[in-house]
Amino acid sequence: MILRDAAQEAVQELWLPTLAALGFALLALPLLAESAVMVRDRAVLDGVLALAWLLSVGSGLRLGTLLGGQGLGPLLRPAVGDGRFLRDRLAGHGAVLAGQASLVLALSCLHAPVRGGGPGLLVHGLACAGEAVLATLLTALLAVVVRPWLGAACAGALLLVGHLEQELLASLADTSARIPAQALLLFVPSVERLDVQGALLRHSPIDPAAVGVGAVELAGWCLLLGLAVRAAWARVDRA
Amino acid sequence: MRNEEVVGLLGANGAGKSTLLLVAAGLRRADGLVHPSGTVGWMGEPGSLPRTTSQLLALVAHAHGVASEAVERTRRRIPLADGPVDTLSAGQRRLVLLATAVLHDPAVLLLDEPLTHLDEAGRQVVVAEVERARARGAAVVVATHRPDHLPLDRRVQLVDGRLA
What we know:
Oligomer: heterodimer
Low-confidence stretches of chain B: none
Helix content of chain A: over 70%
Number of helices of chain A: 11
Number of strands of chain A: 0
Order of helices and strands of chain A: HHHHHHHHHHH
Shape of chain A: globular
Distance between the termini of chain B: 16 Å
Strand order of the largest sheet of chain B: 2-3-4-1-5-6
Largest sheet of chain A: none
Strand content of chain B: 15-25%
Mean pLDDT of chain B: 90
Shape of chain B: globular
Number of strands of chain B: 6
Structural class of chain B: alpha/beta
Structural class of chain A: mainly alpha
Largest interface: A-B, 19 and 24 residues
Strand content of chain A: under 5%
Order of helices and strands of chain B: EHEHHHEHEEE
């Protein structure tokens, strides 16, 4: 019941941005890509992949501000316990986030260049949904100490850093800041090993081992952040 | 606190009445221990509730593990407006919150300013629920500025967070 309610809440929150993103991906993106005459196919594929990621992470940040349940928390958490409340609400939100990523990528397959992505699109969908769940959890965690919108802003910034981890390290390659930056980045949630955007754009094969490691990394971060949210909730007032 | 007793928590604004109820309901952390002798029902101000009355009652009933018939029984006793709870009038919202507090027949019923925003009919509903809770053996604590409008067995005065 709590899970279903959370899923309904997520659908209510996300249907409009999802519809707008689909409209952009299906109608506006091909027109925009026409301006890139020689690389139209690549522009469409790149646009769809980036849009799916942005939509997922944005949706995750939004749902993270609601994970505590607002007024529902004080009414339900004492009865069911923080752990079950968090588990059910995260499952409801996560299911909708996964459905959203799947829907956007599946409908974008109407474009031939996106269809060409093949099974790599599944990995991209997993990465999008995974980062969205991380965004939800990270926002909920930060929302314990700051206002939810500020928590979402901080979580968004952290996830962006995690998403661009390799690029950041590459830019620091010849500097003394590389080692400390690398150490600090260990604490930033990231599923970069699941990022197959580059491979899809280059039409190069996806490395199954990297995907496997990325999936384990994603599960680990979700578990860690879930436990952190649960512990943080136990240390603050419920109302 | 004893069963079958209605205790009124009295005191000026800021005396600690609502805080004490939040602690007793397990909603606020505090030094020391609170031992409710069974399930707790709390009627306070939980914040935004973007759900309809029916959705909210179904969720609360599910969380407490009570059958949907309990919701129907509660709705027969307490007249509730349907629609999104956040759009209801303040008085209608108070009655919805009262329903969420009593639908699982808690052993300890904590009511924070239950008469606020209510008309005479609403007041009678609150009084009836308090008497019903007492009759079935519950302990009831009511924080209120209107003690004469409620069937209190005992009154406790709070001053700056301490019993006077």
